[in-house]
UniProtKB/TrEMBL annotation:
Entries under SUPFAM superfamilies matching the protein: Homeodomain-like
UniProt GO molecular function: DNA-binding transcription factor activity; sequence-specific DNA binding
InterPro entries to which the protein is assigned, alphabetical: Homeodomain-like_sf, HTH_AraC, Tscrpt_reg_AraC-type_HTH
UniProt cross-references to SMART domains, sorted A to Z: HTH_ARAC
Keywords: DNA-binding, Transcription, Transcription regulation
HTH araC/xylS-type domain span: 201-299
Top-level taxon: Bacteria
Protein name: AraC-type DNA-binding protein
Amino acid sequence: MDRNALPPLAVIGRSIYPDLVMPIAVAEGEVLAPADPAHPRYVIVHVRQGSALLSLHGQPVLVSAPAVLLLDESSRPAIIRATRLALSCVYFHPCVVNSVFSIEALQSTPWFDGTASQDAWLLQPFLDAIHMGQPLTLLPALHAQLAAACARIAAEGDEQRDGNWPCRMRSWLIELLFRLRVLSDDAPAHASTAATGHRLDQVLLLVHDRYNTSFTLDELARWCGSNRTTLNQHFRKLTGQSVRAYTIALRMQMAATLLRDTLLPVSEVMERVGYDNPSNFTRTFRQTTGVTPRQYRTAECWMQ
């Protein structure tokens, strides 16, 4: 392949996989790359600092940090006015998530077969007119996590340190998309928290922010200015589950996604979703899915 003819906003393999083109790139700055119909990309725009007045389809949109916007080629806004604006933009083609995906296929296919339907779930906010181009406000924890995810994606592409760099780059994108999908589903909860001012209303957002870290119910209750009994009762009203059951379900959903969509070692997947004991991870995964992590990958991974 002629490297001079490569589409923009992609990472090129060097000493490892020298012919590989990964259609993912991270750009830092104050502007968005212009739309390129020949090489379409979805864009995750992390507004790290400042504010801007945007024009989207002729309508003004005000965005202030910390926030995130999800864009496609048709919803690439123009920046009319900006103040101390700092952006991190992740440009990617959906084939990075699953090889059967293109932007056209996602727009025209109501349902994908098999596990591709689960992967399409990650990209639904890019197909939803409610979320497309509309800023989503970030809690401080998620603001920091998005910044870290952008940095990790960029670092994997720059360093290419071992044979797992393409899968690891893909995995950080998938984890970022997972958090953003949950965030888009949580938009009413953000609005409720802002309207009521009650810290207890933040519990679902906090669990989504910290699902792959170690925390106790008592710690969660202190963060929300409550006690564990009241907090668990409130959480059950929101989700129908206890905090522990809901957190485990989130962890297993993320683990299944990484096993299905990457070839990262199972030990690395385990650590990424918050486990340090292989036996505990395997037992929990089997209880959730009916199979071990290795059996799940053998049956479901589209890369094998």
